[in-house]
Amino acid sequence: MSSWQSRLAPWSAPPEPDKPRLPYEPGLTLNIQRIRPPPPFDHIYLPHLTPEYRTFILQNRVVDVDRLKSTTLVDYCLSTVPLPIEPLGETAVLKVDGVMAVGDGRNAQIVTCDIDLPGTDQHRMVAKIYDPLYYSFVSEESPNIPEDVVGLADGDLAAEAAAFECLNAPLGGKVIPRYYGSWTFNLTLRNQKRAVHLILMERIDGIILRTLNPDNYSDEDKLRVVAKVMECDALMEYYGVTHTDLYPRNIICSTDDLSSSKLAVRVIDFNSSVVHSLRGLVPRYTTKSLPESPINLFWKNAPDGLREWVPDYLREDEKWRDWLKSRWSNSPSFETAVPE
């Protein structure tokens, strides 16, 4: 059967009698070990991987539909060769004390936790857990096709960790949550240990922008949020990361009072981000003293994910560009440049 015929052939997720109940709930205690995460391996990175790692990815993370349709989720998770990871020797005990976004089939699990890490006085953190057993085995794009859950979970870890490793020193605790490293732990299934990976982040008090209704705010307040997100994007670009997913679900506001002079925003969720240096590109901060102006970055249009927060009167190109120039033309924080 050809590849396209396999994709069209009827399929539904098989029963999973051996799949345990989702364990990520308050009271769970995990013994975790710090790791050096592997580089991201999406196709845009393949030419820049070491020959050994590239061979591993092509042999173990490029899976055809026929294989996925002939197995169960449990069997696939247990039979796949684990990613090569480097343990760094540090261990800790993580205790889950709350849930933020947890559910079977929702992909990464996000919980709050209590943990004692050497070198930091922070104990209340957020853990983002990439457990392929609780990713959806059914493709979002086509329910007739199984999802490569192991490749997806490993890819999420590798991409997100790479972005945090790049941005944490200059922007952690300011533009993004502070990052406390990548970790692994073991869970037992069918008397077999399987490794599950996670990252630890700062726990931020705030409001997800998605939960706010732009119709409840003035044009000035909406633009204040939009401008702050654009400045965050400019800073991330400066230090070598393109987020690619600047939507309200990935933006945390310090308050729902958008007129407050203390309003701050943080950007989260880097699993689809692009790290420039890992693609053979030179990060801007190595050659320029200032980030590129939001005027340049958003000259053609506002961030796609924030269009509902842009007032109607700025939907015309000329008025949008006038607003950009009025906001940043004389800003000392960004390189002064106005596109033609």
From TrEMBL:
Residues 1-25 are annotated as: Disordered. It comes from the Eukaryota. Residues 96-340 form the Protein kinase domain. It holds the Pfam family Kdo. This is Protein kinase domain-containing protein. Keywords: ATP-binding, Nucleotide-binding. PROSITE patterns: PROTEIN_KINASE_ATP, PROTEIN_KINASE_DOM. GO terms for molecular function: ATP binding; protein kinase activity. The keyword Coiled coil does not apply.
